[in-house]
Amino acid sequence: MRAVPADSDVRRFHLKAAIPQPKLIVEEAAFLQQVTDPSAARRAWAGLTPDLLEKARGRVTTLAWVMFALIGAGALIDLLYAHLYVGASDPLMIAGSILLWALSGGLILAARDERLSHITVLRLALVYEVIICLFLAVFTPWLAYMEIGDVPYVTWVTPLIILFPLIVPSPPRVTLITAVAAAATRPLGLALLAAFAGLELPAMRYVVSTMSPAFAVVLAYVGSRVVHGMSVDLAEARRLGSYVLESRLGEGGMGEVWQAKHRLLVRPAAVKLIRPELVARDPARQGTMLARFEREAQVTAAMSSPHTIQVYDFGIERSGTFYYVMELLRGLDLEELVRRFGPVPAARTAHLLTQVCDSLGEAHEHGLIHRDVKPANIYVCRYGRQVDFVKVLDFGLVKLHHHGEEGESPELELTIDHSVGGTPAFIAPEQVAGEQVDGRTDIYSLGCVAYWLLTGSYVFEGNSALQTMVMHVREAPPAPSSRTEQPVPDALDRIVLACLEKDPAGRPQSVDELAALLEACDVGDPWTPARAANWWSAHLSDL
Question: Active site includes 372?
Fold first, then answer.
């Protein structure tokens, strides 16, 4: 498949045609404009992606709660002070405190109201900033004037102008307008006090009182530019080809998996990032790995088995990070399935394994030997209207079996760090010995997966990874039926033990042969779609 160039900062390879575009809702349409038009993204609300906007909304909620508590505490202190030393409380001060307390509570409710968009909540927070500053600009000088006959040069307006852009991110221009409005409350407050409370202040006092808020405006604008720049840089860093990263789903030794969204379609996807420095520190080695990664991703995308994870895109980000984009699945892997719900009945085990055979069978026809078949790489999910639908993951990641093409380096047969490929609990004896692998290697690992499903235990459990691998080479496995209390038919016992033969010649010679054995095996009541639907309804109805 031919590589096609894309964005100037990202090398991409289009591997799969996009699915039809669903109907866009208003929020998605707004986000679509941001991510498809760079100038629009910079004009948008700080260029934030949806998950960053959600985090900003959370900070607004925290800020509103803090202000709610501080205003309440301040009002209580003022009441006690007035009662002890003045004899009566100022009704205007009480009314102002109640108003601000109500505004803080209103901002909390707005931030928690899912009907309001994140941007709406951030805008309300900026309005809240100006109102708070106006209150402080009026009542702080008024209280000081009543006590000492003069007004302070600096009020809480100044730190609030600096603080808000750090908590409530907004584009620099919006921050500047808001900060100027907040700073203007300082001379405005003095003017109001002069007009309605009879304060007589010289003109120079207005100038001096405005200096610290004006200085705060400059700091707020500079701070906003820094925060805005970081937000835009982060948003840009999260754009990989046609996809935008939204939230991290997990991480492993070589990279991370993110939930992402197509920039032109409202289609969720999973993006796996592979950092080259973690798998090959030698630049020449990285080049070899990159060539393999590109070819393997293309081969994986070309496979059409419905039980193989679908790959949409592959690319190399300008920092050298490799990524590929897969369909986003709803379900859980077989490791989590057994850990959460215990061993799987024989009929269901055969049902799941048969689907895995379909995926591996097509892979073997393409020369792909998975070499890391394990429960964590087999996903059982809700797929359209079907449940208990199997997807096999992680094809082609430095575990491709090559047929010795002319001119190909023998080192391509090795894992990146020249170590034994595979997972110790599910590794075939020939992998441990460093011998030639083929489709029967995956069959051995699949036998280990079957063992895990039926018993909830590994075939061999040594005190170390090395001891476990040696046991795979030397020791005979006990029958699954001897390791579980649930019934395991004799025929299924024999199939699993045949898969676990040390000599590949003693195993089923292909996954098609294994699938035929599983389908012919008498496992009692078959695992029907109705049984599967009932199980999912009882245990995973939220997926």
Answer: yes
